[in-house]
Write a structure and sequence with these properties.
Layout (H helix, E strand, L loop, with lengths): L3 E4 L2 E4 L4 E7 L7 E8 L6 E6 L6 E3 L7 E6 L4 E6 L8 E9 L11 E2 L3 E6 L1
Length: 123
């Protein structure tokens, strides 16, 4: 089992930057592929980015590629999402999630979820 807690959300101006963190409990963090998902008001939760167990492989939704960067520090049991050039459409609750094995963008494959952190991008 793993418990996940997101932090770093807040209000930011369009064009600005924000870094989200996801702190994971336990001693098996490095065995999980990790992902970031988001849910905007009135919309379904969607995949944003994911990273493999050792950080060697990353995937992104097209709309954030080049602006967002996912990373992890297994020694600190922490996942990050660096968000640059933020747009109003990035406004959402951002969730981190964990799964055993290989990286995936399919949220149905992630059994472990944090509570989310709100990101609001003002125009």
């Amino acid at each position: 089992q793993v418990q996940l807690v997101e932090s770093g959300g807040g209000l930011v101006q369009a064009g600005g930057s924000l870094r989200l963190s996801c702190a994971a409990s336990g001693r098996t963090f490095s065995t999980y592929a990790m992902g970031w998902f988001r849910q905007a008001p009135g919309k379904e939760r969607e995949f944003v980015a994911a990273i493999s167990r050792n950080g060697g492989s990353t995937i992104y939704i097209d709309s954030v590629k080049g602006r967002f960067s996912i990373s992890r520090d297994n020694a600190k049991n922490t996942l990050y999402l660096q968000m640059n050039s933020l747009k109003s459409e990035d406004t959402a609750v951002y969730y981190c999630a964990a799964k055993n094995g290989v990286v995936s963008k399919d949220q149905k494959l992630y059994p472990y979820w944090g509570q989310g952190t709100q990101v609001t991008v003002s125009s």
